[in-house]
Amino acid sequence: MRRPIRLAVLECDHPLPQTAAKYGGRFGGVFKALLGQSAKTLNRPDIVDPEAGLDISEYDVVKGDEFPALEDIDAVLISGSSACASFPLCSDCFFARN
Question: Per DSSP, what are the bridge partners of residue 75?
Answer without folding.
Answer: 7
